[in-house]
Amino acid sequence: MFNKLFKKSKNEEELTNNQEEVITKKESEDTNDISDDNIEQSKTGFFGRLKEGLEKTRRGISDKVDDIIKSYQKIDEELFEDLEEVLIMADVGLETTERIIEDVKDKVKERKLTEASEIKSILKEELKEILEDVEGKSKLNINPSPAIILVVGVNGVGKTTTIGKLAYRFREEGKKVLLSAGDTFRAAAIEQLSEWANRANVDIISHSEGSDPAAVIFDGIQAAKARNMDILICDTAGRLHNKKNLMNELNKIFRIVGREYPNATKEVLLVVDATTGQNAVMQAKVFKEACNITGIALTKLDGTAKGGVIFAVQSELNVPVKLVGVGEGINDLQDFDPENFVDAIFPE
Amino acid sequence: MVFESLAEKLQNTLGKLKGKGKLTEKDVKEAMREVKLALLEADVNFRVVKNFVNKVKERSIGHEVMESLTPGQQVVKIVNEELTSLMGKEESKINFADNPPTVIMLCGLQGAGKTTLSGKLGNLLKKKGKKPLLVACDIYRPAAIKQLQVVGGQVDIPVFSMGDKQNPVNIAKAALEHGKKNGNDVIIVDTAGRLHIDEGLMDELGNIKNEINPNEILLVVDAMTGQDAVSVAESFNEKLDIDGVVLTKLDGDARGGAALSIRAVTGKPLKFVGMGEKLEDLEPFHPDRMASRILGMGDVLSLIEKAQANIDQKKAMELQNKLRNQDFTFDDFLDQLEQMKNMGPLSQILEMVPGMNSKQLKNLNVDDKELVKIEAIIKSMTKNERNDPSIIDGSRRKRIAKGSGTNIQSVNRLLKQFKETRKMMKQFSGMEKAMKKRGRMNFPFFK
Fold first, then answer.
1. CA-based, 20 to 30 A from B360: which of B45, B159, B237, B322?
2. Paired residues of A6 in beta bridges
3. How many CB contacts within 8 angstroms connect chain A with chain B?
4. Which domains are assigned to chain A?
5. Which residues of A touch B110 (CB under 8 A)?
């Protein structure tokens, strides 16, 4: 009975198009050495890929908004309720959704709008405003060198993969990059990072599984100093934010970074899975307390997840999203651009 | 506060209706908005919420309010019942094959926790006397095979792998042969995480399924998943006709509304929940607990039921009289402790109290050991001491501390608390007399 309610998404037909892309990506991943040809190719696809990844987000929100607007002539209470629905379905979160709807209502009143079709641009404006509150801070803090990036997050969000992609990108920019394998807990996490280090052709500092993560980070810092590295990227074990002792451990690592590398530019990156619902807000809150996160990397945006949780996190915590993960390939990491992000969600 | 408990909200909304025999449609509508908000905060899919709310609304309107309950509680009860039934009542088990080996295939998005679950599930089945084999079919993620090998090593279960150059379909097929030859009666196939819209990889899963014909296909889902859980579960179910769902990372503080959404759209049962990073941390799924968790509400009714079942009414009356006459002794205190203990662990009881949500509990380290200590101290007292604590002098304190394995400070603290409680009781009963009001002070020690 429920199945009838859930109509198949229109997206599916288009997905076959993306398929080829994915397969070629897989192939280039399999051959461990990344030839220059490949890089050239994928570079041209950079924007396309982001657009492609965001396409689904856009379709998700935009199509529904269009549907709703088409079915209404005038703006009324019911229309707002339905718009609220659309945002909630996109994981925007109740509090943020209500705030957005209230603001849109105010503007509608202010400008004495009566046509339902005018809603879309107002909504877009509103969403942009939330993201732009923190604009200017959405670049990674990596200048001047030396810089250290501490990557944190709950389990399974894609920390290690994000680090691999970051390392590759920095190396491509001609920077000297060192990785520190701070996830000493999860089985084979160190091997996973080593494999990425190998693909990105950067060095890695690691201890054995089960050793003290703070010590690995410490050693990483010493090595980065001695080898005169531009950027040190530190992996940490995934931890649920309600585990007090694990958060304390993270705080210790954070303090060691501050103490041992005082002159380094610091970035503490929280990795958030785009499929995460409202819990992401809580995650950001608690991680901010433990290690003062300065940015967010939103991963797995190439699925059907809407990533609307960004709005909730930014409006409630004012921590900017800095990176967006849009695929499994080594190239599939983008700088987050609020302007483009909203434009991609609501194209003219 | 982000997560105000639903029970609290409902009681605020409906509290003013106390004494009314019936709920009006408007009252219910207001209450349903709160239910809707609570479910959405818990990440239950919007369409599932809508459907659910309509159902509850239907039941609530015109429903006679039970004498002893407020309308708010009545609605909470209906909500909880409906939610539990939506979650499925049966305790779902693994489908074992008539002819071993039983083949279990795990699938899901990236980072859901499939590889860890392979180890946990293998461990659980091994403890039940099975001989599991883990199969590494994740050839894509770097070091995924190594991870499964390490996990397998930790629980001493063999792992079958053919490296990352072979097709997963061939690996699965070969593993089946290998398992049969080596007398493994359960074969757990770990597959790579994949997006549900990635048709190539979804087809791969279909091919594995056709090749090895699993008895059980489990979809592994992160408890933190938001609205998208529905499309993920639908796609996997359409492609593979899954047999059940495992919800992982439930030891976090996400409410896990995804569980409800998935159950609602696929009709497939939740079979296990992952409750921690250790390989023992896998539990069977309890629909009723999940219902309460999603609502973020104290299970008021079962608390009442539990209390009524476990607390001897006669004893409670006696106690009340004793309190009034101020001859409450340590023996009575001990009785109370026993009754509390019958109700289960303190932390569990506290969870049932409305307004005590997990967020508050986090800062309040409820320690059953404290109760054990108190009990030990009291039990180390002589009869006379228990009846008249004033005779406990320095050397007696030393003896009691030694006898209970605690220290003098703990003994002192308890004595002081006891004295203060008695004093408080005295004031209360004084007040009571003065105001001629019927006060009920059944459990003075637990505020």
1. B45
2. none
3. 169
4. 147-293 (3.40.50.300)
5. 156, 158, 300, 328
